[in-house]
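Project standup — Tuesday

K.O.: blocked on the structure for the chain from last sprint. Re-posting the sequence here as requested.
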Amino acid sequence: MADPLDDDEIERKLPEDWRFDGDEIIRTYEFDSYGSAVRFVNDVADLAEAEAHHPEITLRYDEVEVRFTTHEVGNVTEKDLRLADYTDGEY
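H.V.: unblocked you, prediction finished:
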C-alpha cells in the first residue's frame, strides 16, 4: 500500500493547474465541444483502468473535472500525483 503524503509535500509536487483540497487533488479541463470532453473522459478511463487507480470524473458539456485520492490511506499519494501528470498528457 502507498504511503500518504503530507500537505506540504503535496503542495510542492502538485502539477500545474491542479489544486489540493482536503484529501484529493483536482483539476478542471476545458474543451471546445461535448464530443472532445467525452473522448478525454474515455482516455482517462483507459489510463485509470490500466493503473487500477480510478479518479472521480465529472463530465459537463465543455469541461471535465478530475479528482484523485488514494482511498485506502485517506489522502494523496505519489500514485495520485503521477496519474495527474499522465492525465495532463491526455489533454
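K.O.: great, moving the ticket to review. The chain is about 40% helix and 20% strand. The chain has one domain: 7-90.
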